[in-house]
Amino acid sequence: MRWEQGSRLWVIFPRLQDTGEELSTTLDLWICGRPGLLPSAGWSTWSKIGFSGGGAAMARERNEKLAALLEEARWSRAQAAAAYNRVAEETLNGEVRENSKIGRSHVSMWVSGVQPQGVAPAILCQALSRRFKRDITPEQVGFTVSTSPAQEALDWRVDPLIALNDLGSGVDADRRRLLTDGVYSAASLLLPDETWWTAMAQPPAEQPVAGKRVGRGDVATIRELTQAFSRMDQRRGGGHGRRAVDEYLKSEVLDFLRGRFANDETRRAMFAASAELAYLSGWMAFDNSEHAVALSRFNTAVKLAARSGNAPLSGHILRAMAHQSLDLGFRSEALKIAQASVHGDRYAAATPRERALLGVVHARTLAADGQKQAAARALLRAEDDLSNVRDGIREPDRTFFFGEASLAHETACALRVLGDHQRAVKEFQRSVRTRGAAFRRTHVVTLGYMGATQIAQGGVEEACVTWTSVLDAMEDGIYSGRARQTVVDMRKLLSPFRKRGIPAVGALDARATMYLAQVD
């Protein structure tokens, strides 16, 4: 097909592409002219998957850096596209994720010199980083990338009130911006040095002379709302209610933070309460697999916590960042963040329950890093910390969910990484036995992981029984990307057994397929 528009000539060549899985029709796009002149075939779709259009096609120089990296990785164009799509599946969400999928022709275009835009460079760099087990930057791949607003917001020098103010343009618009411009990457996980923490904890040089007067009752209101939504998150999952949390953050909370405080104690308490609510928004986004959004909220929460001078709260939020990083495969970054979460007063000044929480996630990152003995010591210390919980010690409300069941769950995850599947199953079972009904979302995730560990031991029918309980709970109203992922993983793990005539496998697989069709 050929289109004439003004003096610009557009040529699109349809071509059949065999990905090894199915035949699909793709368009190799050769562009002469500016992207703004693309006809109704839809430039917006092409820009989402990383094509830029400036300059004549024939004038482009081959991207030798990318070609060399693909050769070093021993990837064909199709294999590179598949690796890219796996990272996009993990780090993006919803419509943007679907529109960001690529085929081998896209990789060929990039090698030929086309510069990708949007999230594409970061996603490809992450795919290559995983392959080589070292950081790969856009410059090393031969890409010229400008920093997006979403990535700039993660700069530790950016005032957290500015980040909250950016929500004022609309929660939905903010979410779309983060999903379009933001991508979860290793570069986004670098923490500030100790001088930053010290400076952030200092009282402001000048007090506001305008704005509403803020008192202890206002702090209590934010804490009450945080508790209510945190308990809802535990019951229903992070996909239920997060927009309401963000709406409150960008309106009421921002006004409080800009207000006049009766004294510095009230100011610090308000920043701490606001940090907990921002953290909750991040945790809910993480649970719902909105990872770029989650990282942004965690970043804001850490800044607010640092302003409050509350070291254990900062550790609590860093622990969540480490948890997310680990789940997404950023093992070395997760370990560094977890180490920061237990550094100094973040651990030393924490209560026993919070120490146990920080410590067990640290243990998981040590296990993932292959430090078996250090992980074992950290697990024992976490057990000891939890055993020191007493009625006379007032624990912060943010730790209400963490008890024996949660400790057993995290311990099982560490043991599974270390290859001790037998003990991991026992710890998952202990978690299931001891978890209360108020924590249904995490209960489902635990069951999902336990089934995966059982099938790794050869217990196919046992895994089917466990996973049946997962679907029972999911169908009753759990809105969680993590829980949904256990169903996706379930189908993958059942795949080798589908043709063996095991009735439980066929029934469970059919039910899981039906469930995913209804929620996707």
Class of secondary structure makeup? mainly alpha
Fraction of residues in helices?
Answer: 55-70%
Rg (C-alpha, Å) = 24 Å
Q: What's the number of extended β-strand segments?
A: 5
N-end to C-end Cα span: 34 Å
**What integer is the average pLDDT?**
83
Per DSSP, the total helix count is 26
Strand order, sheet with most strands:
1-2-3
Largest sheet: 3 strands, antiparallel
Beta-strand percent range: 5-15%
- The parts where pLDDT drops under 50 for at least 5 residues are 1-50, 52-58, 170-176
Q: How would you sum up the global shape?
A: globular
Organism: Streptomyces sparsogenes DSM 40356
Protein name: Tat pathway signal protein
Q: What's the topology here?
A:
Blueprint: E1 2-5, E2 8-18, E3 23-30, H1 43-48, H2 64-73, H3 77-91, H4 94-99, H5 104-112, H6 120-132, H7 138-141, H8 149-152, H9 160-166, H10 171-181, H11 194-200, E4 213-214, H12 216-236, H13 242-257, E5 260-261, H14 264-287, H15 291-308, H16 311-327, H17 331-341, H18 345-348, H19 352-368, H20 372-387, H21 404-417, H22 421-434, H23 440-456, H24 460-475, H25 481-494, H26 503-519
Parallel strand pairs: 4-5
Antiparallel strand pairs: 1-2, 2-3
Provide a concise account of the structure shown.
By secondary structure, the protein is mainly alpha-helical.
